[in-house]
Amino acid sequence: MEEELKCPVCGSLFKEPILLPCSHNVCLMCARNITVQTPDGETPVQSRASGSSDYDYLDMDKMSLYSETDSGYGSFTPCQLKSPNGVRVFPPVLPQRHCSLTCPLCHRSVSLDERGLRGFPRNRLLESIVARCQQNRASSSSSSSSSSGAPKCQLCDRNPVDATVMCEQCDVYYCGACQQRCHPSRGPLAKHRLVPPPRQVAAGGAAMASGQPPVAARKPATCVDHEAENFSMYCCSCRAPVCTKCLEEGRHGKHDVRPLAVMWKQHKCQLSQALNGVSDKAKDAKEFLVQLKNMLQQIQENGVEFEACFVAQCDSLIEALTRQKAKLLTKVTKEKEYKLKVVRDQITHCTMKLRQTTGMMEYCLEVLKENDPSGFLQISDALIKRVTSSQDQWVKGALEPKVSSDFDLVLNTDSLLQTILQLDFCHGKVEPGPSVPPAPFLQLEKCCTRNNSATLAWRVTAPTSTPIDGYILELDDGNGGQYREVYVGRETVCTVDGLHFNSSYNARVKAYNTIGVGPYSKTVVLKTSDVAWFTFDPSSAHRDIVLSNENLTVSCNSYDDRVVLGTAAFSKGVHYWEVRIDRYDNHPDPAFGVARINTIKDMMLGKDDKAWAMYVDNNRSWFMHNNSHTNRAEGGINKGSTVGILLDLVKRTLTFYINQKQHGPTAFESLDGVFVPAVSLNRNVQVTLVTGLEVPKNLNQ
């Protein structure tokens, strides 16, 4: 975690950190050092000594919003001065116009307003964590130090002596001799900062002896513009805590402002949830490192074993093979070294990423321990993004070995003597091993739709080493939604019924065998019919029902009402069909409408709760559902009349038209599920069904 607590400019633990608009942090003194004037400003003038320890801020020009397309002019222009961490610094400047500061991490520049560095909020949360870390370090140093109170050198082999310096970057104590031998002030180590080690007065006073006062409870955060006001609200538009006076002044009048405590808890919850994902990835990474380290030993053992077998084969050959043996042995060694190098590089890379992730996790856990809402919300958005981004780094391929521990080299000893000089390794196995089936090929010329059914055909072109056990056909929901399995079996032709009318379905297929499931085929799009074509269904009709005219005309043998259903089913869209009255004797009451599949079929349609219908005589009509009669309307039927039924599952209505005169609409109480056209009649009525009709514009209400 300590890397999260070090300033990117000086490389030391943060001192008086301030939060930049890009969500990165720098020390206050470091921010002064990297603040420069833009070309429009005047020449920088030397200010008072940069070593001043007072806590005043530079007074700079008005801060503008930083731009993604900033020219980059700022702290990264050529300069001879560098911080211990390699960042170029500049002499302090007096308060002037056109001053800017460039973040040393993301290189985004921001101009300063008249408040100067006071315009950046102080990261009190980070400051508290740094202080707590220093206090813990001082306590641990106190418990391990000698009675003289000085920490011991950590590199002395025997009888460690008192340390004379400590490297802030390495976090190691050195005596004079070990410092000259192991940490010389030259080369890359010349940038490290060596400081005197803390002296311990007593075990109980470790924090005071190291110059670090105990961490005290912080006062509630106050507004930068109204120092007497505490933060009480949080502006979601500005992503900053505000006080009541800021709201009274109208700065955030049209912004989304919410209570500070609510947003604090919400962001803590988001960060905790993101940490759970990263924690799982870190656990997988640790297991992956163990796997890679085991692979090193396995590769070593397999390499030695392979070399021994190869040498035994070569020794059994004639003398002419001797010269070629050395060349082939070199290839084996190179293959082994290549595999070892790849695995070692992968271990190094994965270890570095894991260390960064672990450090970030520890830092986030420390942040979650804080009870300062405003301080937490200052950095929560950036931390959530970092945690999410860190989780995305652990993709599936990142936790898989790049090479195999096996050596895919085969030596064929059956070659003839005259081919020995051309003998070489064969990369890969001699015979392909078992594998999953390839992707099937959809035969577009055989794929078609009819009404609300779709037929698909496919085949496998490439040969497979393992026989195919079956296929899995998947279709989406007709709206581009998730796929679902509609067929599993060995056949290569499948017809899917009961689809929605006027819908486009995406279909794909894959094969499987004893090894596993193969890849998907290319996707084919199938569009169902715009209008519904259907007949009466003889399989579900009452036994007294008589069908003729290719199941389009229906009559009945009973004086009681009997129900017959259609072969189509509807669950969305708008649908229209008509029924023509062929025979009408003795003024019966036939009913027309829609029903569930399991509606009662030995009484009038609409008397149970599974049907919605209009029953009509020669003078008037009624709407009926669950034996409830409503919406009486004048106008009846006779021989030759036409009854139109309009089912609108979008508006949730059912409308009837008797000789084009509207009856309804009537609203559905329930529209979930599947509805089928339905008719009930007795022996005094005969009707004919007319389908495949578009919705008449003058009828669609």
Automatic annotation (TrEMBL):
Keywords: Coiled coil, Cytoplasm, Cytoskeleton, Metal-binding, Repeat, Zinc, Zinc-finger
CDD domains: FN3 (cd00063), SPRY_PRY_TRIM67_9 (cd12889)
Record domain B30.2/SPRY: where: 513-697
GO cellular component: cytoplasm; cytoskeleton
Residue ranges occupied by any B box-type domain in the UniProt entry: 148-197, 218-260
Gene3D superfamilies the UniProt entry points to: 1.20.5.170, 2.60.120.920, 4.10.830.40, Classic Zinc Finger, Immunoglobulins, Zinc/RING finger domain, C3HC4 (zinc finger)
Molecular function via GO: zinc ion binding
Domain COS: 368-426
PROSITE patterns tied to this protein: B302_SPRY, COS, FN3, ZF_BBOX, ZF_RING_1
Record protein name field: Tripartite motif-containing protein 67
UniProt xrefs under Pfam families: ANCHR-like_BBOX (PF22586), fn3 (PF00041), SPRY (PF00622), zf-B_box (PF00643)
Species lineage: Eukaryota, Metazoa, Chordata, Craniata, Vertebrata
Annotated ranges, domain Fibronectin type-III: 437-531
Keyword Methyltransferase on entry: no
Protein location: Cytoplasm, Cytoskeleton
Biological source species: Oryzias melastigma
